[in-house]
Amino acid sequence: MAGLPGARSASPGSPPALDGSFLLSPLGGLMGAQAVLGLLVWSLIAATTYHLHAAYGWVMFVSLFFWILTILFLVTYLLQLHQKFYMVPWPLVLMISNAVATVLYLTAFVTSAAAVQPTSWRQWDYNRRAAASFFAGVTMIIYGVSTFFSFRAWKGLGSNAATSQVTDHV
């Protein structure tokens, strides 16, 4: 948000303001992609008989947990709440969350891809599980790229929405 047109600075006492320019930043665009792809992964798995296969329980947990967490981060940044809670090291929190999501999505992708069986008696389950495996792999890559941008923001390299949370509140 630093240097972006329309970026506003929220003071601790002001009401939350919607920051639409956040979605145009690399971090905002990646969060939006994570939310959409994560929704695809867990909804495709939920549309199958995943409860009959223990492996898909793990995929469902990872995708749903990080989808909710990503939505919470997205709302936090869109409403500029990260500036109200300036004592939290948001770039570090976001980097750790993205790194953990990358690793766990890797395990979910491998688990989901290994559990897809083309000889399934329900063809639509096979198609949905295969699509969920593909989207889990893409989501893992998006979280990895987001980890890179979060790392740069944490180290102060480059300018994106995560770096603008540092203000003089002392």
From TrEMBL:
Pfam hit, one: MARVEL
Membrane listed as a keyword: yes
Topology of the protein relative to the lipid bilayer: Multi-pass membrane protein
Alphabetical keyword list: Cell membrane, Membrane, Transmembrane, Transmembrane helix
MARVEL domain span: 22-155
Transmembrane segments: 21-45, 57-79, 91-110, 130-151
GO cellular component: apical plasma membrane; myelin sheath
Localization per Swiss-Prot or TrEMBL: Apical cell membrane; Myelin membrane
GO biological process: myelination
MF (Gene Ontology): structural constituent of myelin sheath
Protein family membership: Belongs to the MAL family.
Subunit structure: Forms oligomers.
Name under which the protein is recorded: Plasmolipin
Protein's organism: Erithacus rubecula (European robin)
